[in-house]
Each structure stands twice: as structure tokens, then as C-alpha cells.
Design goal:
The complex is a heterodimer. Chain A has nine helices and five strands, in the order αααααααββααβββ. Chain A is of the alpha+beta class. Among the domains of chain A are: 88 residues, no CATH class; 86 residues, Threonyl-tRNA Synthetase, Chain A, domain 2. In chain A, strand 3 and strand 4 form a beta hairpin. In chain A, helix 1 packs antiparallel against helix 2 and helix 2 packs antiparallel against helix 3. In chain B, a hairpin with a 6-residue loop joins strand 10 and strand 11. The longest helix of chain B is centred in the middle third of the chain and has 24 residues. Chain B is 31% helix and 18% strand. Chain B is built from seven helices and eleven strands. At the A-B interface, strand 5 of A face strand 1, strand 2, helix 1, strand 6 and helix 2 of B. The structure holds adenosine-5'-triphosphate and magnesium ion (MG). Chain A: Keywords: Membrane, Transmembrane, Transmembrane helix.
């Protein structure tokens, strides 16, 4: 604790008067103070609780002694946790990497124990060979980028978020590959908001070596829950299929069951006589609307009939 | 450089509905429903974009060759495969929606009088449906009613509202269409309309403003883009004039999110359209109960 007391800090402050130092000083001081407060509070609460409970079972003097011993011990534990919180946070950030590294090492050891050299060689060759298959490689690369992007986002936030007093950064939740790049969900702490991050969208893109980032709200009822879309590729130039043809199958329809349309004649200008411009109508199995008469103001109104031929004009109110 | 993807995030796309062909060759209809979200393309993150079309009208605009008819065909194909859905198609060009002629309940070509008569019939259906809903003490149709959805698709709206027929007929067309657009929504008669530039001289503003959803394919000017999307979105950076003319089928979609989204519309080529249309026509012929209409 004394290491972080006011004096050392003030010296650090005066030596390099940059804003970053100010922030760090403040963070350190608040961390030290938090740890101290946590120690005192925990000690008092645990001591009181112990005394209350223990005095039911033993002599009050013994209970007091027990409380005086137990309180500081638990308090010290809490103090340590608060004090090394930055380290724990780093461990949390690197959890996926640490877990997979441990899994790899221990998995390999177990595997080496359980099998002989030939099997090991075959498995390693198969794994290595699967990387030659482009889809597999792309999948793996996409997952690796997701991990990378979470770290870059954290670094980037640490660079530009000095908005709130204690310098707390957004909580970075999971990341998932998308066809254009990655999508990361984040949870904002008090002191930040969507527009603040949106103003720095370019900075985030730079940090992630991406083309563009788009930050949007996920949940209309919670302003703290955001989604960061990191774009590396353009998908809007692709041709999209609606997937409806899969539902009918390529050889779905018997060929003789399709409707034949008799192609009209008179397809060239000389074939069409001058005044009566009659568009030849295609004949299908269904009734086709009559061709439009010659353009002009006069238009023959027909009676209002439905497809079945029954008169429906009395049903219409004008 | 064009790549081809097939509706990428398939999990969210209606391919989950399988189709099985019965052993003796009797076709089985795919169980899509207009009441389910309809997949119409992907957004700029490659995620599926779906529309809830049964309770919304959509207006599609953009320069010639932008991809309007492509989107209309995707929507029509879905509707053609959807359970208990009727198609009413207006296509002055005959070829854009022509593949669906056999399975459409009404197909209106370049004939304004026919268009008017179909709209009048729709108006009667709408009146009757609201009377029916009132009798049921309800205000809106839902899936459980088993009443058919009548999808009205108009390609080249300008042909009907500003080109064909006499002035009176065109005015009546505007009036009837405005009524169908205004009232059809809640009783299962959604309208999908496409035109190149829906400015006042083509369709009245009062009609244009009734369309809740907008899709703006590439527009030649910022002004046209704003006309399609409905207000000065261009000043906020949403302008369909930015779209690369070579990138056909890309659009700004203004739907549920309230802010235009860049999307790429799903596209069916001619062979695929006919593959679906033929199959659905075959189903309707072979199995006449496939579309058991309960329309009032
Ligand atoms: N979603 C899409 N993906 C890929 N290509 C597309 C897409 N939509 C359209 N295209 C291409 O663009 C061409 C023109 O599209 P479409 O006929 O739909 O344009 P349009 O907007 O209806 O034009 P018009 O106003 O002349 O009717 C199509 O033939 C097709 O090759
Ligand atoms: Mg078209």
C-alpha cells in the first residue's frame, strides 16, 4: 500500500505531465483505495458476523478472539483479490487462448500416452492435410480472427476511452464470424454511450485492420448492449439465391405437364399493318387479356365481370 | 468480380421447410406461409433480410435495369409456393411476371380496363372481409383464419397510372389502387408495386405515402432516391444514387428497422423462375385441393 501512496504518485505526475499518466495515476490510486476500503469493510463485517454466531456456542471472550482472528484473514483475502484484479482481468481476457493451449498440450500428452507413433503420425498428417482444404482453412481463420478482434477492441478502447473517472472499459462479450468479417457484442459501463463509440468507428476499424465498422444497438430496451460489426469484405456484390428452387427439385415437373405458349407472329415492323396495330396475343391455357387497341382517347369499356363470368357490378359501390 | 452465394445464413432462411414428393408422383406443396418472414436477400453483413409482407405494402423504385423486377419475381415466387395464397399480377410488359400467368388468379397485361375490373373485384373482397372481421369482433386477419392471402403485384405501375387509357380511367385506377393499398393490408391483401420513379406526375403523393416499406434500387439522382425512400434520407447518407450501376440488385430497403439498410436482393434467373412456376402449376393441376380458398 505505501508504494502507491500520495507522494510517489505526485512525483510520477509531475515528472511526465501527459494525460495518460494522469489516468494511470488515478486508476492506481483508486485501485489501492478500493482494496483498502474492501479490507476494512470485510474485516468489520466478518468479525461482527463471527462474533454474533460464535457467541451462541462458546464463551463471549473466545468468540471475540475468534472474530478478531477471522475478520482480518478474510479481509486480507478480499484485499488480495481487489489488488490483483488487473491480473485476473488479463487472465479473463486470455481465457480462450489459455484454455485452448492447455487443452492442446494435455490432450497431446494424453494422446501420446494412449497411442503409438504410427497412429500419431497419421492423425497429425490428417489434421495438417485438412488445412489444405480451403473451407476448413477459412473456418479456422475466421475463428482466429474473432479472438484477434476481441483483443484489438480492448486495446483500442483502452486507447481512446478516457470518458469516465475510473477508466472502465466496455465489457467485451463473445465474437462470431460473419460473411463479411466478425461481429462482437459488447456491454457498456456507465459513462459511455452508443454515439460516443460511433464517433470512433473509424478508430476501431483501424485497430482491427478492417475496412469499416458499424456499431448498432442490439436490444431496443437496453442502451448498454451493443453490437460491433467489423467489415473486411463486401458481400453485396455477390449474387444471392432465395433457396426456393431447392424446394421443388430440379426434375420436379414432368416435361409434358408444362404449359406451351404459342409464340405470336408479326415480330417485325413490316409485318404489322399500319392503322390496326394488333399485338398478336400469346395463346396459353388460360384466358389472356385482350390486346390493347390502338392508342387513342377512345377506350372500349367492358362490363364488369369476374373470372367466372358472373356479373359483379351490383356489388360495387361508387 | 461476381461471386455466387446461396442464401448464406441458411439457418434463418425458409429452406428449413422440406418438401417430399409422394411415392406415386403426386407433387406435394412446399409448406411456406405468407405469415412467416419472407427471405428477400442479404444485408451488408451477409445476414438474411426478411420481410413481413402480409401486413405491409412495399413500393419498389429505381432506374431501368436496377433489379426491381428481380425483387418482384423473388417475392412472387415465394408467394406462389406459399400455402393458401392467391396471386393478382399486373404487368404491362407481360414478360416480367409472365411466368406466373398460369398460377395467378388474375393476370393483367397492358389493358387498363381489365386492371380496373380486377381492382373493383378486390375492393369488393376487401369490403366483405372487413364485414366478416366485424362479425368476428376483430380488426385484423391472422393465420388461424385460414383465409387466403391475396398478393397484388404491380410491375411498371406507371403504365397503368400514367400511360394507358383515358384520363378518367387513370384517375379511377389511382383511386381504386389507393383504396386497396390503404385498406387491404389488415385483411390479407398486401400490395407490392414497382415503378421507375414514383414522382407526383406518375402516382399521386397520397398513394405513394401509403406504402410502408420502400426499396430503392439504383437511382440516377439523389432526388429520385429521396422520392422512393420517402423523405430526405440522402442528407443523412442514405442515397440510392451511390449504388454502383454494375451492381444490379443492390438496394436501400426501408422496412422494420426504420432506417434504410443496404441490401442485395435475392435473384432468380429465368430457368429457376420457370422451374418453380411449372412445378407450382403442376401441383395446382394435379392436386386441385392444394389451394382450398375460403375467401369470402
Ligand atoms: N438481385 C439481383 N442480383 C443479380 N442480378 C440482378 C439482380 N436483379 C437484377 N439483376 C440483373 O439486372 C437485370 C435487370 O433487372 P430488372 O429487369 O429486374 O430491372 P428493372 O429494375 O425491373 O428494370 P426496368 O425498370 O427496365 O423494368 C436482370 O436481367 C439481371 O441480370
Ligand atoms: Mg422491370
Amino acid at each position: 500500500m505505501p508504494k502507491f501512496s500520495g507522494r510517489g504518485n505526485r512525483r510520477g505526475f509531475s515528472r511526465s505531465g501527459g494525460t495518460v499518466t494522469v489516468l494511470e495515476t488515478r486508476v492506481h490510486r483508486s485501485s489501492a483505495r478500493n482494496a483498502r476500503v474492501a479490507f476494512i469493510l470485510t474485516t468489520i463485517v466478518i468479525a461482527l458476523l463471527t462474533m454474533t454466531i460464535a457467541s451462541d456456542y462458546m464463551n463471549p471472550v473466545l468468540a471475540l478472539l475468534l472474530a478478531a482472528g477471522l475478520g482480518p484473514i478474510v479481509g486480507a483475502l478480499v484485499w488480495v483479490v481487489v489488488r490483483i484484479w488487473p491480473v485476473l482481468r488479463v487472465l479473463w481476457w486470455w481465457t480462450p487462448e489459455i484454455t485452448s493451449a492447455l487443452a492442446l498440450v494435455y490432450g497431446w500428452l494424453w494422446f501420446a500416452d494412449a497411442t503409438d507413433l504410427v497412429v500419431r503420425l497419421i492423425v497429425v498428417a490428417a489434421l495438417g492435410g485438412s488445412f489444405a482444404i480451403p473451407p476448413v482453412r477459412r473456418r479456422v481463420w475466421a475463428v482466429v480472427l474473432c479472438l484477434f478482434v476481441r483483443h484489438r477492441l480492448r486495446v483500442c478502447f483502452a486507447q481512446f476511452i478516457i470518458a469516465n473517472q475510473s477508466g472502465t472499459l466496455p465489457f467485451i462479450l463473445m465474437a462470431r464470424p460473419t460473411p463479411v468479417g466478425e461481429r462482437v457484442w459488447i456491454y457498456l459501463r456507465p459513462g459511455l454511450d452508443l454515439t460516443y463509440l460511433q464517433a470512433s468507428a473509424e478508430k476501431i476499424a483501424v485497430a482491427c485492420s478492417a475496412a469499416q465498422t458499424v456499431i448498432e444497438r442490439v436490444n431496443p430496451s437496453n442502451a448498454a448492449f451493443l453490437r460491433v460489426d467489423i467489415k473486411r469484405r463486401e458481400v453485396l456484390t455477390a449474387t444471392v439465391k432465395p433457396g426456393l428452387t431447392d424446394l421443388v427439385g430440379a426434375d420436379g415437373t414432368p416435361i409434358d405437364d408444362t404449359t406451351a405458349v404459342i409464340a405470336p407472329s408479326a415480330l417485325d415492323l413490316p409485318d404489322v399493318a399500319d392503322p390496326a396495330v394488333k399485338a398478336a396475343k400469346p395463346a396459353t391455357t388460360r384466358t389472356v387479356p385482350p390486346a390493347r387497341p390502338a392508342p387513342g382517347p377512345v377506350f372500349q369499356p367492358t362490363s364488369v365481370t369476374s373470372a367466372d363470368g358472373e356479373d359483379v357490378s351490383d356489388l360495387i359501390d361508387f | 468480380m461476381k461471386r455466387t452465394t446461396t442464401a448464406p445464413p441458411v439457418g434463418e432462411v425458409p429452406t428449413a421447410f422440406g418438401i417430399s414428393t409422394a411415392p406415386d408422383g403426386v407433387p406435394v406443396a412446399p409448406m411456406l406461409s405468407m405469415f412467416d418472414p419472407m427471405f428477400i436477400g442479404i444485408d451488408e453483413f451477409g445476414q438474411a433480410v426478411t420481410l413481413d409482407l402480409v401486413f405491409h405494402n412495399i413500393l419498389v423504385g429505381g432506374e431501368p435495369g436496377g433489379g426491381k423486377s428481380g425483387l418482384l419475381n423473388t417475392i412472387t415466387a415465394y408467394a406462389a409456393m406459399a400455402d393458401n395464397t392467391r396471386l393478382v399480377l399486373f404487368d404491362g410488359k407481360l414478360v416480367e411476371l409472365g411466368p406466373w400467368m398460369d398460377i395467378a388468379d388474375e393476370f393483367v397485361g397492358p389493358d387498363l380496363e381489365h386492371a380496373l375490373s380486377v381492382l373493383r373485384r378486390l375492393q369488393v373482397v376487401i369490403n366483405n372481409r372487413y364485414a366478416w372481421l366485424r362479425a368476428q369482433r376483430r380488426r385484423k386477419l391472422d393465420r388461424q383464419d385460414r383465409m387466403s392471402v391475396i398478393l397484388v403485384v404491380l410491375d411498371e405501375l406507371a403504365l397503368y397510372s400514367a400511360t394507358y387509357g383515358t384520363k378518367d380511367q387513370r384517375e379511377e385506377f389511382d383511386r381504386l389502387l389507393r383504396d386497396v393499398v390503404a385498406r387491404g393490408r389488415a385483411c390479407g391483401v398486401p400490395v407490392v408495386a414497382a415503378t421507375q420513379r414514383p414522382s407526383v406526375d406518375i402516382i399521386p403523393t397520397s398513394l405513394r405515402d401509403l406504402f410502408g416499406y420502400r426499396a430503392a434500387f439504383r437511382c440516377t439522382t439523389i432526388n429520385s432516391s429521396d422520392i422512393v425512400l420517402g423523405r430526405d434520407w440522402a442528407s443523412q447518407g442514405y442515397s440510392a444514387s451511390d449504388i454502383d450501376p454494375e451492381n444490379r440488385g443492390m438496394a436501400y430497403l426501408l422496412a422494420e428497422t426504420g432506417v434504410p439498410r443496404r441490401i442485395k436482393a435475392a435473384y432468380l434467373n429465368d430457368a429457376e423462375i420457370y422451374q418453380i412456376a411449372d412445378y407450382m402449376a403442376w401441383i395446382r393441376r394435379t392436386n386441385t385441393t392444394a389451394l382450398s380458398g375460403t375467401a369470402a
